[in-house]
Design goal:
This protein is of the alpha/beta class and about 240 residues long. It has nine helices and eleven strands. The two termini are about 35 Å apart.
């Protein structure tokens, strides 16, 4: 099975412009992600999908592969498909460009799950919620699963409502924002209009659920250290040091 991992890297982040090139331990963040993506078992090729030549130059100088994509791509998945539209591959892994401490082993579990289950059109990664604070935090996306690890819903709100139930007893997890797509399904997915729930929550994966498509999750113990603002850089550097 041909597997391509794509890292969408947009320059114009609202909260942190130029984020992919931010220095993390003296190296652009996108290069940390690129190096760790290359360690994912089962991946044949890694591509950085960007809308900015400065990012593309940094990647290619480091020996990586970059694909220029339109700045108008509405979501990361749309940018991923723009980069691999003409590629010969079976499975596409959509990574996050702001996770310098990306866990290759966790993503490898997602690749294996989809390789072993050809009927799964779309998969994703989740991790146990660490605290009540994460549960209440709108910046932490919650995923509610059924007893076969199929995703029922994703939300920035604290779901499900814990009425007489401890957080540890509820089937709710933190969403990692990493996706696996069959290439044919990714083409269909990006051809659909953004759904009402997707727009309301600003969560692109809801587009699949709104069209009745099952998303299968892999539970991995991964702390997830995303860099959303410059204040997150010291946290990411500490994670990389350990």
């Amino acid at each position: 099975m041909e597997v391509v991992a794509v890292i969408p890297a947009r320059y114009g982040s609202t909260r942190f412009p130029g984020k992919p090139l931010a220095a993390i331990l003296g190296k652009p963040m996108i290069l940390w992600v690129l190096e760790r993506a290359a360690m994912i078992r089962g991946v044949n090729r890694v591509v950085v999908a960007t809308d900015d030549e400065r990012i593309a130059i940094a990647v290619t100088k480091a020996g990586g592969e970059a694909a220029m994509t339109p700045s108008s791509c509405p979501t990361g998945s749309d940018r991923v498909f723009a980069a691999i539209r003409d590629a010969e591959c079976d499975l596409v892994i959509n990574l996050q460009g702001d996770e310098p401490a990306l866990d290759p082993n966790a993503v490898s579990l997602l690749v294996s799950m989809m390789a072993e289950n050809p009927s799964v059109l779309m998969g994703t990664l989740v991790s146990p919620l660490a605290s009540e604070r994460e549960y209440a935090n709108p910046n932490v996306v919650k995923a509610v699963l059924d007893d076969q690890n199929r995703c029922l819903y994703f939300s920035r709100s604290p779901i499900p409502n814990l009425r007489g139930c401890a957080l540890s007893e509820a089937p709710v997890y933190r969403h990692a924002g990493v996706y696996g797509f069959r290439k044919d399904f990714l083409a269909k997915f990006t051809g659909w209009r953004q759904g009402r729930l997707e727009r309301a929550e600003s969560l692109e994966q809801l587009r699949a659920l709104e069209h009745g498509v099952q998303i299968s999750a892999v539970v991995a113990d991964w702390p997830m250290v995303a860099v959303d603002t410059p204040l997150d850089i010291p946290i990411a550097e500490a994670a990389l040091r350990t």
